[in-house]
Amino acid sequence: MPFVGDHLSFTRRRFVQGVAAGSALLGLGLHAAPTRAEQLQARLGPKVLSGTRFDLTYSPLKVNFTGKERFATAINGSVPAPILRWKEGDTVTLKVTNNLAEDASIHWHGIILPSDQDGVPHVSNGFKGIRPGESFTYRFQVQQSGTYWYHSHSGFQEQTGAYGVIVIDPKEPEPFTYDRDYVVMLSDWNDEDPSRIYAKLKKLSDYYNRRERTLSDALADIDKMGWEGFLNARQMWNEMRMSDRDISDVTGYTYTFLMNGVAPADGWLGLFKRGERVRLCFVNGSAMTFFDVRIPGLKMTVVAADGQYIEPVTVDEFRMGVAETYDVIVEPSDDRAYTIFAQAIDRSGYARGTLTPDPALTAEVPEMDPAPILGHMDMGMDMGMDMGMDMGMMGHGMHGMNHGGMKMGHDMSGMQHGGMKQRLPMGSGPAGYGSKRPVVHAPTEYGPHIDMRADAARYRLDDPGIGLRDNGRRVLTYADLRNLGKTPDPREPEREIDLHLTGNMARYMWSINGVKYADAEPIHMKYGERLRINLINDTMMNHPIHLHGMWSDLETGDPDHIPRKHTVIVQPGARISYLVTADAMGGWAYHCHLLYHMAGMFRKVIVS
Amino acid sequence: MKKFKKTLLSLLSLLAMATLNPVAQAAMEDDPTLAKVMINQLEHRYTDGPDPLVLEGEAWIGKDLHKAWFKIDAARVNGKTEELEVQALYSRAVAPFWDLQVGLRQDFRPKPDQTWLALGLKGLAPYWFETDVAAFVSDEGQFVLRGQFEYELLFTQQLILSPEVTFNLYARDDKKRDIGAGLADMQAGLRLRYEFVREFAPYVGVNWNRKFGETAGLARAAGEKADDVQFVIGIRAWF
Predict the structure, then answer these.
(1) I need a surface site. Which of A39, A511, B48, B107 has the fewest CB within 10 A?
(2) ipTM of this model?
(3) What is this structure's pTM?
(4) Contact at 8 Å (CB) between B83 and B75?
(5) Quick check: A101 and A151 in contact, CB under 8 A?
(6) Which residue of chain B comes nearest to A199, CA vs CA?
(7) Domains in chain B, ordered, with CATH?
(8) Residues A320-344: pLDDT tens digits?
(9) From B26, which residue of chain A is nearest by alpha-carbon distance?
């Protein structure tokens, strides 16, 4: 039944796995059969550019990731784009030239800079995109360090290859040591024109879902729980007309997942010497895919999230929403190869790489986990039915929770009507603990454009998320994230903004508070104010929400060590809160980073 | 009547243009104008007499919540079009899973022509029943209630069994067309298709036509059967 199963056809395998890097090289103009050295070179990922002056040029590039030649939107002839290595405190000058037939742009994701340098056409101050044949020179001072990335903010170019990693070396030495570092950029490649993907989703929203429930699933359920149990279990889904198998909109059915631009057929290659500490800078540069990352045989110590240092947490696995970054340290102590395994959240495919002391060694590639199935909790329903199943994940990752603010799951009696409002000693909702406001749906959230409202949306910070609960591995959760230093802005929020992530899956329409971007007023922030944004996810999908220009200080239950992020996953049927210091004047984009949700689930933020 | 045909033709050609030119869909536009053509059934029906070739299709062009919607039902027997019904509707989303559709229906065959006002509700009912319920009022004063229901049962991701039922209820007798008041006819089908890709699936199935009451009597009097089980083979496709 699973689409990626034992009986993969040859063409199907090639599609999921991609083709060997040797063939991908064809696109780079090497027409003769590639030599071993060239094949090896192609597995090492994009090259690094460092300094303070950069020339970046957009042009079409013929690539071959799946056995078919396609044109990618490349920067400096490379997919992913070159890795940019900056230094904190430097002023960088980046001349971006557009040799495409359409407008282009570059947005520096997670970088704190003036609005007019942020690169979002018609949102950033004065920026209208870069026209074909023209250049735009970005210039700004680098005020931070860590792992970030850059990508086009025009059309669907991000899907077709316009993304690259930025690593900023700090002025002061890092609070951890390592002997070498590698960038690990995850992405999703497809041979189809992205506008066709979008059109298909609008015409048949489950087009790419090849894991719908079948008769044999029903028979197995009836076997297990009897007819009555089966009918009860299906009732909500049947009445809501939603699929509990609806995990990703676009899947491995069309995607080939890349690690540093290398298809899984042979995978990216990272070399180390035995005993070295290796920093891996993970970036999820996908258009639509969440990845779950692990390295079987190695513990990973997470030292930074979205570029910012956190108190180190040692885990077996972590989930990366689209646009998130994590830095981890690994210490491979054996003279063997290790697989970096990044499976797509819906288990329709994976990206992989090999960490090895010797390019000739390979490591076993693990089986993918079973495809996850949504439960009532993921739909923001009260917990009646799924409690037994979902309680297990509440046990770990509770540190910093002793103020009671976000401690969930042990007292379900008060959870029926709106999540947090009962018996939680949160006073006026102090910084660090999230909001105490009840979940209220606006009138604009009712109508043909909305198919679901989560009435019991809860904070689920210690929930690793669908498909990762109780998998026997130590999985990073947001509850684990604590800023390494003191909370940078310890002020209490002066006000709160509630934003509901909304949509109609079947019609493939996305919006915020039921209002799509085209019809929405900007969000106004007063310069210098500290405010809280409450995100409530009224859909059954994970949404990675990205605020440009300012940090999202994620409230994970410890007011003294609030971590700073630029992209925050809001789990299906859940709520989450963060604080924002409105310290950047001008216009900023604020949106879901899933490329095909973005046009509707988008707001302009104006700080004045 | 001529005008109706002309409008229909120009709308259909617009639809064809929009369909054949997907690149014109502006990149990253939230709500682009799209078009979809669905051939729900294009099938050969094996009967005792001459075998009909039947087409049942739909097409739309428009945006998320507003669309122009076309439906066609046609049957050809021995190279002659015996049934041809076309609807041109404005379709407006009124609920998360429902569209209200209003417009015109034109029956070109069987003769004489008949023109109807159409008002329908199309969508997905709870428990995943694809539903299309419509009321029609004709220029001759006839009133019809039609219901169509379809369900999909997945054996695998590609092998899909789809039962469906259609019925027509008439308000009054129509002797010209051998129709009696009340529940006149019902068609129940069971089709098993294999989706090579989402857009293309051949199928086999059975189709059971049954006439009721006065309509059945009129059919029998004309020497036709009121009850007919047919084996069908066909394709389902969309783009």
Answers:
(1) B48
(2) 0.91
(3) 0.91
(4) yes
(5) no
(6) B34
(7) 34-238 (2.40.160.40)
(8) 999 999 999 999 989 999 999 999 9
(9) A195
